[in-house]
Amino acid sequence: MADSQELDIELALDRIEGQLDDEMRQHVTAFAAAYAAGTSLPGAPDLSGRASTAAVAKRALTFPTLRPRAVRLLRLVAPILIERDAAVAAARSREPTWAGLRALAAARDAVAVARFRRPALDVLHQLSGIREASVLTLELPAAIGGWTETDHVLEDRALDDAWRYLAELAGAAPALEIIRTDMVRPRFFAVDRGSTGIAVVPKVIDTPAKRFGVLHELGHALVNQQSSYEWPRAFDEAGASYVARLMEAPDQIPGRWYSPLASVARARRTQIARVLDTVERTIQNPTDPPFAKPPWALWHDPGAQAAYVRAEAIAEDIWTRLGPPREGLSIGQDLVYLAIELDSNLAI
Ligand SMILES: [Zn+2]
Questions:
Q1: Does residue 329 surpass a pLDDT of 80?
Q2: Distance from the CA of 216 to the center of ligand 1, in angstroms?
Q3: Which residue of 7, 213, 248, 306 is 20 to 30 Å from 257, comparing CA positions?
Q4: Closest-CA residue to 221 (of 204, 244, 252)
């Protein structure tokens, strides 16, 4: 029989999840609409950034039967708790400079150490499915001529066709709400884990870079449909990267998605992520990185770069072992097994 402490924590988890599941569904729907419209983005529900929510999740981690739910909750709560801290918010509101990023990173570390007894990047990397640091490098790759230039306009139906093709192969219901707007970058929002979501995509898809962006987001939609697992970020990105590889050779997916530049663009993207990850890991070094100012991603999305680097390695592994999508192949299942194994030794 479970001891009474475990039961107390379980009841607290039930209460939090009961409230949060509903609130998050509404929040994500509202967030996607605001994102697509280019209006101000709503903040996450109060409960999702409370220290008390994180404390319940941390206590639940110590009970094996509650552990998966605890990890799921921490994945949501830890980044919000860190970014909501008053000192972090103040540092983030300043003009981005390298000195400013050092101060911001120190503020993030202070909250993370107080709440999780380890630096912020360590917490975020653990939750994102990263266990090893990648090689440090500051070598920026050259731009790829033509990647962001118009080559052809993708047919209107190509997006629906591609999505239906992917969903049918995976045996998933092709439920996906698509919002078309030229205001913002493509992005997928998981409204319900394991089922539906909203994809915001451009009205006109006329460059290889835009085709990549859209396919990548369809990849997120596909892994979301295939499992209700609260994905470690590296695995979610790996699924997106795997699907986006379909544009690297002709006739791998219905529609004119192919670009001969796509595989070198992937290598370039990965190298940029390595460079930004290096900058982030070494931010407290006394010399400024050799770039004018901190990029948006490091200012607003800490820990993401290592997840992108890791995602490419995971996607490479799936592609090598399983090949491109085919009837009955659920990459979501494959990713879930890997993610569960990794989460079982989460250390925070
Ligand atoms: Zn992505």
A1: no
A2: 6
A3: 306
A4: 244
